[in-house]
Specification:
Membrane topology: Multi-pass membrane protein
Mean pLDDT: 83
Main location: membrane
Helix content: 55-70%
Subcellular location: Cell membrane
Shape: elongated
Protein name: Lipoprotein
CATH topology of the largest domain: Multidrug efflux transporter AcrB transmembrane fold
Strand content: 5-15%
CATH architecture of the largest domain: Up-down Bundle
Radius of gyration: 35 Å
InterPro entries: MMPL_dom, Mycobact_MmpL
């Protein structure tokens, strides 16, 4: 009869687990797009002062869009061009690419120039405007010089449409004419250091962050590259684009997951087989853990809609903590021997597991309060996983472990545990802890701090080098430092940007911004007024026209310089034209790639070449609506602020855990139980100082978990000791077993390719290790009375 409620609960829990597993399978594989988030920027919190600045950061980071930017390099010019054609043809055959641009389509120069003709008198360079406004401007001499200029293959208007060359000068300043890439043999080509570089752009048919698109596109590129380099010896391929950064992050996460997940699973399996000497406990422990991980994955995707790489790797490490609950139940079964009864076993371990769960969840809940997407996901993942794993012990395991264990815990393991427990308990332990605290002081004094963004995002050096080289040669590739220009109206934005542009040009700093393509209406009016010196003797009428006599004078200038009368009449009749508006700018096809720079009440100005942040700030100083956005510095500043807050949160967590222990064990008992995790934190921080590790936000986040996990061990020992008095050392053996499984998972994070996870893993390795060794302090010495 006693088995009936146990069986019913197990059946209900198993049914719920199957439903959650089915939901998880659908969320992961049944919706087409993978929920795995490989966008590194999505892991970062908002750092800028307003939404416009954040939008600007995102726009710039997406400037290359879902495209591969490729440069084919070869010292032989013909080989470089042939290789680029072959690469474009090979990539174009794969449907993963929506469009591949290698050879330029047939291009009519007039298609680029003609859209600007109606606005030509409002579009002047600074030099032309100054020349027109200066006294002594000689129209006839200017026209004669224009007639005698050599005309090459540069993009420009016909001579009759632009006799003074003003529009030609303005077009020369446009972004496409400033690139070192020029059309040669229908290919965009640059030459530098005896090497030819040819641009190939492959646009993806999908998102750069879609796992399936990534794999297919990269496989197609690898195959095409192998074919091209074999056919054209000496060819090198440089690449940049969001897809390569996302794929690099994904590959690193997969490696970390395999290292942590597989290695920890094998290590835990061997350890459990050694301690329990049976396959059944091993299967039970992994079943409980697997249910926790499945529940955690489903909960995270339901809450956030996606799963970050950082969470995925952290989830692999969660195995070591989730297995603790089932291990304690298995140890209780092994220690009970033939008197084992499943429900009584649940009642025996329930207080310890619930108290341990509460302290662990407290640490993770503090992580959830941090407005940092990656850390919040880790917290939700852990909270859900811990809760499900613990619930499985209460509701599922009793039905699976009805019979007594075949053998008690492995005797050698229990003997080792008992020997250390005798050493690490009693007054000697307190004396040793006191000495270690004194020894820890120099380590504390050696501590520095580091809040660098590269702790979280550290792309391969080779990819960064290629991105920088492509940006230098072709002008492609986004940056993380730029000027943000703000204003209440589009006109105000453009005027503010022009003030910055004037200062940059005076300092010889190259830049790309909207005002270089679309002058403000105020600037255009000044341009038209400057042109009026030629057409209207110095001023336009209110209706924008000028007198017939003045037009006749302008006509005579052109005829005197050598222009045909019909050409002069046609050109003069087009004056003054009309202003170039924002809507006009958006409709010009050549400006489509640059529309990400405009945000209606704000614009982005990107420096070209190496311009340090200090100089950028100096250029913006005193200009209305102009500020410098430095995303890496913003993240680093935020990390520093969070690091300061984290120490406060850690102190608050200690107080809450102490209150929970005092409620359960009384004041003196609480001090004993709290001492091991506190000492573990103190010694871990000192060890970091001795190792020369600067303190980071991720170290402090890990210390919160050291507090929660370490408190578990003290609770397990305190609660388990009375139930295993007949087998001295058995309770502490269970604690050591839990600690070693945690070290096999969390500790392996120290081998991660991501610096943040390395710091996380190293801190947990030290903290859990120290706490497990000091846990006997929380319980009375086997030979002495309880304190």
């Amino acid at each position: 009869m006693k088995a009936q409620p146990t069986t019913l609960r197990a059946v209900l829990f198993a049914a719920a687990s199957l439903l959650v597993s089915a939901l998880g399978a659908w969320l992961l594989f049944g919706r087409g797009a993978s929920p795995l988030q490989t966008d590194l920027l999505a892991m970062l919190p908002a750092t800028e002062r307003n939404a416009l600045a954040e939008d600007a950061v995102e726009r710039l980071s997406r400037a290359s869009g879902d495209r591969m930017i490729l440069l084919v390099a070869n010292k032989d010019d013909d080989a470089a061009k042939d290789a680029a054609r072959d690469l474009g043809a090979a990539l174009g055959k794969d449907k993963v690419f929506a469009h591949v641009l290698a050879e330029l389509p047939p291009f009519d120069m007039e298609q680029l120039v003609n859209p600007f003709l109606p606005y030509r008198f409002h579009l002047l360079t600074r030099d032309d405007r100054d020349a027109l406004s200066a006294p002594g401007f000689n129209a006839v001499d200017t026209l004669k010089r224009r007639l005698n200029e050599p005309f090459g293959a540069t993009v420009g208007p016909k001579l009759g449409d632009d006799p003074f060359g003003w529009l030609q000068h303005w077009l020369d300043r446009q972004p496409w004419n400033r690139s070192t890439l020029v059309p040669e043999d229908d290919l965009l080509t640059a030459h530098r250091d005896d090497t030819s570089y040819v641009l190939v752009v492959a646009t993806l048919d999908g998102s750069s962050y879609d796992d399936g698109v990534q794999r297919r596109a990269l496989a197609a590129l690898d195959a095409a590259e192998h074919e091209v380099t074999a056919k054209h010896p000496g060819t090198q391929l440089m690449r940049t684009g969001a897809i390569f950064y996302a794929a690099s992050a994904r590959a690193g996460a997969e490696r970390d997951t395999h290292v942590v997940g597989i290695t920890s699973t094998i290590g835990i399996a061997i350890l459990l087989l050694f301690v329990f000497r049976s396959l059944r406990p091993l299967g039970i422990a992994f079943l409980s853990t697997a249910l926790g991980v499945v529940g955690a994955t489903v909960a995270t995707i339901l809450v956030f809609g996606q799963l970050h790489l950082l969470t995925l790797v952290f989830g692999a490490a969660l195995l070591g903590e989730a297995v603790d609950y089932s291990i304690q139940y298995l140890c209780a079964r092994a220690n009970a021997g033939p008197t084992w009864e499943p429900l009584r076993g649940v009642r025996q371990v329930r207080p310890a597991l619930l108290l341990a769960l509460a302290t662990s969840l407290l640490g993770y809940a503090l992580l959830a309060l941090v407005p940092f997407p990656a850390l919040r996901q880790m917290a939700v993942f852990a909270i859900a996983g811990m809760a499900v794993a613990c619930a499985s012990v209460f509701w599922l395991l009793p039905a699976l472990l009805r019979k007594p264990a075949h053998a008690p815990l492995a005797t050698p393991f229990v003997r080792v545990a008992l020997a250390w427990q005798r050493v690490a308990s009693g007054r000697r332990a307190f004396l040793v802890i006191g000495v270690l605290v004194l020894a820890a002081i120099p380590g504390w004094l050696k501590l520095g701090h580091d809040d660098d963004i590269h702790l979280l995002i550290s792309p391969p050096a080779s990819l960064e080098a290629q991105t920088n080289q492509i940006r230098d040669i072709a002008g492609y590739g986004g940056g993380s430092q730029f000027w943000l220009v703000e204003g209440d109206t589009p006109e105000a934005v453009l005027q503010h940007e022009e003030a910055l542009a004037d200062r940059l040009e005076a300092e010889g700093i190259a830049w790309t911004g909207v005002s270089g393509m679309l002058p403000s209406q105020k600037r255009q009016a000044a341009n038209a007024a400057a042109v009026a010196h030629v057409f209207c003797g110095g001023a336009l009428a209110r209706d924008g026209s000028c007198g017939t006599a003045d037009r006749a004078q302008a006509r005579s200038h052109m005829v005197a310089a050598g222009f045909k009368e019909a050409t002069a009449d046609q050109y003069i009749a087009s004056f003054p034209g009309k202003p170039f508006t924002l809507d006009d700018w958006k409709r010009v096809p050549a400006y489509m790639p640059f529309q990400y720079l405009w945000m209606d009440k704000g614009s982005i100005v990107v420096p070209q070449g190496d311009v340090d942040v200090a100089r950028m700030r100096a250029m913006a100083e005193g200009l209305p609506g102009v500020s410098v956005i430095d995303k890496p510095a913003s993240i680093s500043t935020l990390f520093g602020e969070y690091r300061g807050f984290a120490s406060v949160w850690l102190g608050a967590a200690m107080l809450l855990v102490a209150a929970a222990f005092a409620w359960r064990y009384g004041r003196k008992g609480a001090l004993r139980v709290l001492l091991p995790p506190l000492a573990g934190i103190v010694f871990s921080v000192a060890a970091l100082g001795y190792l020369g590790q600067p303190l980071t936000l991720f170290h402090l986040m890990a210390l919160m978990l050291v507090l929660g996990v370490g408190a578990n061990y003290a609770v397990f020992l305190r609660e388990g000791e009375p139930h295993s008095a007949h087998t001295p050392g058995a309770a502490y053996a269970g604690v050591l077993l839990s600690a070693v499984t945690a070290l096999l998972s969390f500790g392996l994070l120290a081998l991660s390719t991501m610096p943040a996870l390395q710091h996380f893993g190293l801190t947990l390795l030290l903290g859990i290790g120290f706490t497990a060794l000091l846990a006997p302090v929380s319980a009375p010495s086997p030979a002495g009375p309880q304190a």
